[in-house]
Amino acid sequence: MVKLGGVAIQGYGGYIPRYRIKAEEIGRMWGQDKSGFPVAEKTVAGIDEDAATMAVEAARIALRRAGIDPRRIGAVYVGSESKPYAVKPTGTIVAEAIGASPTKLAADLEFACKAGSEAMAIIIGLIRSGQVEYGLAIGADTAQGRPGDALEYTAASGAAAFILGKTDHRAVAEIEAWSGYATDTPDFWRRPGDKYPMHTARFTGEPAYFKHIIGAVQSLLENDGYTLNEIDYVVFHQPNVKFPLAVAKYLKVGQEKVSPGLIANSVGNTYSACSLLGLVNVLDQAQPGQRILVASYGSGAGSDAFVLRVLDGILEKRDLAPKLAEFIENKIYIDYSTYLKLRDEILVR
Amino acid sequence: MRVPGYWRNMSFLYRLAGWKCVHCGAFHHYKPVVCRRCRSKEFAQVELPGSGRLIAYTVVRSPPKEFERCAPYAIGLIELEDGTKILSQLTDFKENELRDDIRVEAVFRRVRINGEQGIIEYGYKFRPALSQS
Prior knowledge:
The structure holds two protein chains of two kinds.
Chain A: E1 2-3, E2 7-15, E3 19-22, H1 23-29, E4 41-44, H2 51-66, E5 73-79, H3 90-98, E6 105-109, H4 115-128, E7 134-142, E8 157-166, E9 173-185, E10 188-189, E11 198-199, H5 205-224, E12 233-236, H6 242-250, H7 255-258, H8 264-267, H9 274-283, E13 291-295, E14 300-310, H10 313-317, H11 324-329, E15 332-333, H12 336-342
Helix pairs in contact in A: 2-3
Chain B: H1 3-8, H2 10-15, E1 17-21, E2 27-28, E3 43-47, E4 51-60, E5 73-80, E6 85-90, E7 103-113, E8 120-128
Antiparallel strand pairs in B: 1-2, 1-3, 4-5, 4-7, 5-6, 7-8
């Protein structure tokens, strides 16, 4: 448990690419002509997109909402497991592209799907200690799924960015508390140089996803004295549609609190951006005074849970930039062969 | 592009930022010693607007080798909101969306990848604007 107060989201932005592939199109390729796919469709990055470009798009939206001089941003942390360079920070590319360069700090973080929320936790500490005035936390991924693997139906692309600063009358939402829960759990990994991750199928559920999310949420609720009745929206990491609904059922949270932040069915699993894009979608519709519980999950494994209270600034800032729903609706469907081209699976010599 | 050249052009490629001559208004991608038009030595840093309208375009189906992966792709002549005209690759379009006078907006994209080991060159491209109104 970390009691906070004083640190708030000043600007937020979500970005997803325009291309979509339906699960049934992937299923057609592999002879899985059945219903019950984990999501209906997923986003696919364009041929000229990667985690850095999407991080920049999300950051630009966040900056438009924050309305600050980007040179006041002292730290840029990008959480991703698909960074374009093995060595060379994505954070410096983002900082240069939004006019924040030079920053004091800029680094890339990796913790599977929770590196973006980990970036938020680090920046909260930097702001509270007075080391930076504003910090930019981003989760961005072009997720990898081996052709034919179960992950191929869900591994998607997107980015979410949050500019954090001290709470003031223009803030969007105050981060009231957070808690983390991490253990060595080998449910999903990728070795250096490998293109695709490995996973342990059903082992990814009970001892991994559920244990860590429930652990983080319960410690937050118990230590900070919240009850779920005080929470208006709940966002869980969403590798598919089923898992977050199962956590909600376990915690006895009504589906009406989960649905506004549950976008996996039309977006897929955007890995480091996943739960944060759910938060973006909730901020696009929440009202001042409402509380949001967000819990990320990263394989390997860990979860960060945050409680946010929406502030009056949301009313002024929300419409300063495109909402996530506009990107979700603005789509181009592609077939499997185009998907292979965009995912760089066709060798061109 | 060689790395130093890419690095020098970064603020323009990333943000459409450059230097405008205080005396004659000529735009320079990076800060020159003297204005190429009027020889002045006074410049102001400016960012060009990131949106405008498409004046004309062509679709490239026989690309140079370095852009083979992206074919077919489109090149557009764009008039930005301040009247500046700029050539740019277009992205994220359905071919039937491309027509003269549509609103377009700048996005940040990979422009060129220098093989397996070279630098990734990022920069601006333009897409049809999310809102055409």
